[in-house]
Write the structure tokens for this entry.
Amino acid sequence: MLKYYTAGESHGRALVTIIEGIPAGLPISIEEVNRQLKRRQGGYGRGGRMKIEQDQLEILAGVRAGRTTGSPIAFAIANRDWENWQQVMAIELGPASTERAVTRPRPGHADLPGAMKYHHADMRNILERASARETASRVAAGSFCNQLLEQFAIHLYSQVIAIGGIQGQPAEINADNHREIMDRLEASAVRTVDGDSEARMVAAIDQARQEGESLGGCFEVGALGVPPGLGTFATAEGRLDARLGGLLLSIPAIKAVEIGEGINNSRAPGSKVHDEIHYRKRQGIYRLTNLAGGIEGGMSNGETIWARAYMKPIPTLYKPLVSVDTRRWEEEKADIERSDICAVPAASVVGEAMLAYGLAAAFLDKFGGDFIEQIRDNYDRYRDYLRKEWKWRKI
């Protein structure tokens, strides 16, 4: 089973991660992992922390001579801002341990419920781990998973659909235009190909910054080339849409997820919702639409898997909301921590990583082996079976 674990605080020495279950013999590009980390740091609306950090991966175990060994993979991402916080965040008790204490919880953040749960008077013990800084670990882990999927011609993408109340026109991405569209998305300040909407999104972020506000939005993630049969209908926890939905909802500030046109499909009659199945001798089984988002009955159906995640505005406001100072039990404005104005473009990269992890786990569940050639043999046999017995010609 593929699993990953992360540890570390926002202003601690480093973020550390262990990945268990990556097969032996997988070529790993550290440059590609670092490229993904840089993508996460980008996007219009990010805060001052991104000017400090220059995230780079340090692999500690599990990779030798550019390939995985089959052992757990361990890596660290240093926090450069640790230099400014090492007294406050010191492991041992010291004179600075009570500096920058947080006692006025931010509405919408983990501060208050976390302090109640873990009995912390200083809510910095909560926010340091609850911070979205942890998603750097997820993006790095997701890159390992993505490099596994790429070995089997499964290609991922992400794009921003909306920021605030501004809706963009999403690109229709397929195997033929994937690389071109991704290049255009990477060149966009807010990860959209819709130039008119991009300008309005940037202006909305600027206005929110001036007003001490923050903005949420929506992004889409997708995977091309996924074979049918990942996941299962047989168990609740094995359903692919449940697994992917849970992973996307685990990203900080994500409050809703839809698979395919989940929201619009709920309003339409069945005849307008379900993707009809066609057949031609040379083309095999095919569909003209993909409103289901590539998943039916908890399993991939061979079409592009795509989902949308909806992000609430970041809880830290530079004109803070009313809260309570828990030292004196009086109403006051909430604490202010350095934060982004809008992190939807960055969150889309995190969503891509979570999709990579979820699909890689499901892929290994079905085709798993101890080394990459063994997995390839299992996958090739399954492809031959689909072609011969089910007329599946897409893979």
Notes: The two ends are 25 Å apart (CA to CA). The longest strand covers residues 155-163.
